[in-house]
């Protein structure tokens, strides 16, 4: 086979060595620094169309070298290899090669010393996930305003390659975790934090694409393959246990604890990224929080230890549910909605009690409605970015469907029949619209939690499944829960035990209603005080402005100059000499 040739500007065909010499001469003639022999060889091979060092994975011994210069060069070569233009199967790395690659990357991070160097390297390694999925070029589309906007086109093949690279990281961490000593454990915890955030940023880059999120959840919750499923010696070659595969004995519990602790923080950081061009696709739709928390729900249903169940619930899912309850109570007071009273009346009717006469909620005046500031809602929450991205969206896109609540039993179905047909829908940022979306999100989260507890494959822990069922029944009202009847475990109770259980539940719901109404009254009082103080400050400013305008009209806006005669008259009147 004849060697490839390179054509010059005059059409003359020359070999690779002559091309390298010609490049060196041209750089010297232009006053540039001459290339090194390795750079000359790489440039000549690139012009001849031959594979270069960027088209091959770096050797593991280069990544695990004791010299920082060699390790940095191997990382740059790896970044160039992973970000090269390729689509489809050409961007996929074989599982065995992925395991070898992560073996070298693991010990490359092992060799890094000093905190700043470790932080920079951890960030650089995590950004490789985004460099794999990020396309080399973007297309432009014309918007409705006539201006051209930059739209990032995501290749599904590259996204799968990025998720496979992330899967190789978690497999390597599960495999090498027992070898980490106490002096290096902190920096590997930092590396896991960076890669957890990179996974959320990858979902954000795809515009919260449902297949990408499902593939990511599968990687995070997947168990290690069976011994006979892989022909390789390494059991993690075809994908190791994810960080939340708590039912797998090969996964250390400390990895699951750490990922659950940082889950909300890293998701909040990923949602705060709104300046990139790729965020235009995700800002027009609500963030699917039930799907993003699916691995956490699966871990809760399959946890083997009670302390693991409590740790994962309190550190990851409970903060979201608490913030959602705070938002519903705040918006309920602002909107003046009496849905809680309707829920209480229906519960009492179902229990055979006589319903109390309804209390008419005081209607908010126009002045109080105009005083509503959505920033006050976010200030009351511990993690505002989560609900801010899930409840607010671009209304012009229409990507969020608010009619999803029609599929559930609604307590307003009777009142809507008597309403006029041409009723005005509230604006997307109004308290009524936010309250509706918050209640829908709350129900979706609890129903997803119940679905995770009932998933047959892999089977959930029976004790944890009963705990999740109790959690769902306790927090959902009979109108919100599509399955309000008693479970099979409670159905076998005797009649006396059943009545005692129903009485206990009625007492708990009554206490919850009293506490909820008390919190609503306190919150409404605080909101009214804040609104009154704002109105008083506004009235004071307006009064000062009117006084200043009157002085300016009378010519008294400047300093008053008193002459000698006038000062004597004023002195005689005041008794001064």
Topology, please?
Blueprint: E1 6-7, E2 13-14, H1 16-29, H2 37-47, H3 60-63, H4 68-82, H5 95-111, H6 115-133, E3 139-142, E4 148-151, H7 156-176, H8 185-205, H9 210-221, H10 253-271, H11 279-283, H12 289-292, H13 294-302, H14 306-335, H15 339-350, H16 366-370, H17 374-379, H18 384-391, H19 413-417, H20 431-453, H21 462-475, H22 488-491, H23 495-553, H24 564-574
Antiparallel strand pairs: 1-2, 3-4
Organism: Tilletia walkeri
Coiled coil: 493-524
InterPro entries: RRP1
Give the tags.
577 residues; 4 strands; two-stranded antiparallel ribbon; coiled coil; RRP1; mainly alpha; flat; two-stranded antiparallel sheet
State the low-pLDDT regions, or none.
138-150, 231-237, 274-283, 358-369, 394-423, 487-491
Order of helices and strands: EEHHHHHHEEHHHHHHHHHHHHHHHHHH
For the largest sheet, list the strands in their spatial order.
1-2
Biggest beta-sheet profile = 2 strands, antiparallel
Question: What is the percentage of strand-forming residues?
Answer: under 5%
InterPro entries: RRP1 (IPR010301)
Family: Belongs to the RRP1 family.
Coiled coil: 493-524
Pfam families: Nop52
Kindly summarize this structure in a few lines.
It is found in: Nucleus. With 577 residues, this protein is an all-alpha fold.
What does this molecule look like?
With 577 residues, the protein is mainly α. Among the domains are: 50 residues, no CATH class; 218 residues, no CATH class. The protein contains 24 helices and 4 strands. The strands form 2 sheets. A two-stranded antiparallel ribbon has the order 1-2. A two-stranded antiparallel ribbon has the order 3-4. Helix 13 packs across helix 14. Its main location: nucleus.
